[in-house]
Design goal:
Number of strands of chain B: 11
Helix content of chain A: under 10%
Oligomer: heterodimer
Order of helices and strands of chain B: EEEEEEEEEEE
Distance between the termini of chain A: 29 Å
Number of strands of chain A: 11
Number of helices of chain A: 0
Shape of chain B: globular
Shape of chain A: globular
Chain lengths: 112, 113
Amino acid sequence: DGGITQSPKYLFRKEGQNVTLSCEQNLNHDAMYWYRQDPGQGLRLIYYSQIVNDFQKGDIAEGYSVSREKKESFPLTVTSAQKNPTAFYLCARSRANTNPIYFGEGSWLTVV
Amino acid sequence: GENVEQHPSTLSVQEGDSAVIKCTYSDSASNYFPWYKQELGKGPQLIIDIRSNVGEKKDQRIAVTLNKTAKHFSLHITETQPEDSAVYFCAASPNFGNEKLTFGTGTRLTIIP
């Protein structure tokens, strides 16, 4: 798993619901990231965290929220305010914010 | 901000031939250039990266070249094999943080047996 685990792999959400995607890493890395991937597009940064209890917005943070209460965990909540949430979501880790990024296996979110 | 363009969007090569994917970037401050391989339904895997203080880096059948003056970098895969079939992404960032890492739109590489 490359030291990072995402769950669930597939998730279906009804209109108006919030859903939370889990991301856990076991390598004691400081930095964690959430990206969104849409078909035919590159990866876009949603949120990132360089240290426990601190996180920053990325390029497309609207409609998303995160927390970093523990070093190993960085869950992403897709809120009902996210107008087009259907996508492939990728969590990633790096030793520090200037080190190479390594991705998890991703979570597919579909709105039904 | 940074803009990364990647070409071609699709590429088919005969098994055993070489494949080349090219990326251009706009921000002269960018100095870190990773390449990722993504298989269907999986997360991207870092396969090679290069920093701007070197012009070329090799790892077995994979190499990356960087031309800072022209602001472009390329991925070269030699002796291609069926397992090389995947989508490849380039990216670029300045040294002061991964939050500035900008990805290309990907190249779907198909190896024809």
